[in-house]
Amino acid sequence: MACGADKDCSYAHKIGAGTGVLGIGTANNDVGTVTSPKGRQIAIAVFVVGSKATLEARERVISHIAAAVVKAIE
After folding, report:
1. Which residues lie closer than 8 Å to 39 by C-beta, 6 or more apart?
2. How many domains in the chain?
3. Which residues of the chain have pLDDT under 70?
4. Gene3D superfamilies in the record, alphabetically (predicted)?
5. Dihedral of CA 13/19/21/24: which sign?
């Protein structure tokens, strides 16, 4: 999530990940709050489950979702 936030945003978040089983990621998640440069705040929770993508790819998806949310609240 942090990577998706605008550099001028502040954020607090907690990540989690389950181990892969038979080449499938059991779960990746990130939950937190973001404060935009204009002072708007939002809570974001992203949960990715059952993906065959790499851990890095799943983390990029979470980052892109966070970026889209931050852009939407501006």
Report:
1. none
2. 1
3. 1-7
4. DD-peptidase/beta-lactamase superfamily
5. positive
Q: Which domain holds residue 54?
A: 2-73
- The backbone torsions φ and ψ at residue 55, rounded to the nearest 5 degrees and listed phi first, read -55, -45
Q: Give the long-range contacts of residues 44-47, CB within 8 A, separation 24 or more.
A: 44/1, 44/69, 46/1
* Token output for 61: 């998806």
Which pLDDT belongs to residue 34? 86
Q: What is the pLDDT of residue 1?
A: 62
Q: Are 41 and 47 in contact (CB under 8 A)?
A: no
Interatomic CA distance for residues 59 and 62, integer angstroms: 5
Residue in the structure block whose two tokens are 């709050």 = 33
54: left (phi over 0), alpha (psi -120 to 50) or beta: beta
DSSP summary character for residue 3: G
